[in-house]
Amino acid sequence: MANPSLLILAGDGIGPEVMAEVKKLIRWFEAKRGIAFDVSDDLVGGAAYDKSGTPLTDETMARAQAADAVLLGAVGGPKYDVLDFSVKPERGLLRLRKEMDLYANLRPAQCFDALADFSSLKRDIVAGLDIMIVRELTSGVYFGEPRGIFTEGNERVGINTQRYTESEIARVARSAFELARKRNGKVCSMEKANVMESGVLWRQVVQEVHDKEYPDIQLSHMYADNGAMQLVRAPKQFDVIVTDNLFGDVLSDCAAMLTGSLGMLPSASLGAPMANGRPKALYEPVHGSAPDIAGQGKANPIACILSFAMALRYSFDLGVEAARVEQAVEKVLADGLRTADLMGPEGGVPVSTSGMGDAILAAL
Amino acid sequence: MANPSLLILAGDGIGPEVMAEVKKLIRWFEAKRGIAFDVSDDLVGGAAYDKSGTPLTDETMARAQAADAVLLGAVGGPKYDVLDFSVKPERGLLRLRKEMDLYANLRPAQCFDALADFSSLKRDIVAGLDIMIVRELTSGVYFGEPRGIFTEGNERVGINTQRYTESEIARVARSAFELARKRNGKVCSMEKANVMESGVLWRQVVQEVHDKEYPDIQLSHMYADNGAMQLVRAPKQFDVIVTDNLFGDVLSDCAAMLTGSLGMLPSASLGAPMANGRPKALYEPVHGSAPDIAGQGKANPIACILSFAMALRYSFDLGVEAARVEQAVEKVLADGLRTADLMGPEGGVPVSTSGMGDAILAAL
Ligand SMILES: CC(C)[C@H](C(=O)O)[C@@H](O)C(=O)O
Ligand SMILES: CC(C)[C@H](C(=O)O)[C@@H](O)C(=O)O
């Protein structure tokens, strides 16, 4: 049987650097554990635009569709700010999400014990924090039509459309309920049903799916503005949060920052099962391309490495191996190893991007 | 000359209780400072629905249009959750905002020194915090058409429309720049121009207004998801933030919670100048109707009292009197007086809603 295939799209900025550490890990798995992948590389974002004038070519799109899993680094950079909307680096990422139909974006916000003092929040508010945000990723205002900038009378008008169908809401709700079953059995759904009809439908459908299929899960609903407040006030009240594409974008970043260490946070974007039973899947760190530190060996590779661990768990049913990677990360942190972003007043052992990657391999 | 008119819409939940303290303050101003208002009361939200089956009658709407300023308590409560979208308490508030064309919602997020330990954030991150969020309040996805829940094929679809015209963006940008001139000269504009065309237009127009009319202000742009992160990470980097209706809803609540004391935060919603030169204006606390503690004398009246102080400043050009009220609030806090929501581990002198109101009067 052929090895499972991994398509690596390292992208822009620090993407290639952090992905280089993941590649070491992939080689380690083949050499030491006999778990081999067919790895190939391709371009996305600004890197793809520089070569072919588009942030994602049709060929790359086809390879992503065929891959067992896609690992993505990061996209974007100031160099591309002047580009037209339609060819901005982000469009490459959005095209992948949309065409692979990756509707469930899993964003764990976890506070690592060794790093709890790093948060801008008080230690007792965030220590031990472990919430999972499930963000709808293929619909809503990100993709709704009509959209664009039009002229009306003598002025410009900017339009986007928030649009959710019942089935789009139901499937991401199911993802959230399934995750909750493996966690603490609680889901909080967030929208603005007091202001938006799309939020009214969201709330109804989530409740219906719950009542019919997941009555064992404790479901609550919260307005998204209150959600932002509650995340800041007392984040540990949450287990799984499910929300739409745009609220998910803002709320998951808010939640990520609570942990104090963005360089640590992975994500998985999952779609429907393929013929081989594996879900369509793309894994990427939550952090961006950080152009200001790119190429300096300062980037923290952990978020990207933990994204690979999520791939092991969700695409390849290697939960035990995933946990081993996660434990190795915790060990190097407990040992005091720190990339620049993790270097706080209490000090630590400074390491470069590759130093951190090597240490994690050694800890495995 | 007639006294300036104040329409009081106390609304639901704790609205009437906190407004009672503002009324004491209004009487104090008349008796002690010769500053008199023609005060009248009316209903909004659930209270209006209970009486007339609508959260805001046409008569009340007309009185609000005619008033020199409107003071609002809070709307909503679980009793009304079952109501149809079109008659929910919130619609009363949204109608006031829309028909009075109150496009600039000013939400100061200020951390009171005596309460800094109340925040879930570390003291040094929030002590001295003083930012002003200017939220567009009459357009965007709150009001855009088409909207509703429709049937397509055999499923329901929820639709809302984000829509901004150039002039809508320009006028709220001007409000932000004007405020920045009186503060620290910095404006940060937030949108998702990397994903939404309405955000692209927002960014362009804000930049154009800046370049033509406010080149003295330091303007920056930030994606709204990053904005949420930066608010949590290092809120003191901001002076004035300007953003759209929906992002403003979420981000201003996030910012409010940073201060740790929602019961302290006022807001002003301002429109164009009326014939008498005063802006159309509605003032309301940021907190909600808190049905769980309504009627128990536990509510903190300070947010509502500080909203009245904003009315003195922005509607009646009584900035000196406004500052006196604000100082009185700071004094009672420094004296250790605490309503239930402000009672932390370090203790304090417990006071009721009216006890707090009386103490502020005494401090004046
Ligand atoms: C890069 C951008 C298009 C993207 C988004 O808005 O979804 C990012 O912020 C994210 O959260 O993955
Ligand atoms: C009550 C509700 C309609 C309102 C809003 O969403 O604008 C509230 O959250 C606010 O921020 O004033």
UniProtKB/TrEMBL annotation, chains A, B:
Which Enzyme Commission number(s) are listed? Answer: 1.1.1.85
Record: residues binding Mg(2+): D225, D249, D253
**Pfam families this protein is in?**
Iso_dh
Q: Pinpoint the site Important for catalysis.
A: Y142, K192
Q: InterPro entries of this UniProt entry?
A: IsoCit/isopropylmalate_DH_CS (IPR019818), IsoPropMal-DH-like_dom (IPR024084), Isopropylmalate_DH (IPR004429)
Q: Does the keyword Oxidoreductase apply?
A: yes
Q: How is the cofactor bound?
A: Binds 1 Mg(2+) or Mn(2+) ion per subunit.
Q: Which family does it belong to?
A: Belongs to the isocitrate and isopropylmalate dehydrogenases family. LeuB type 1 subfamily.
Please give the name of this protein.
Answer: 3-isopropylmalate dehydrogenase
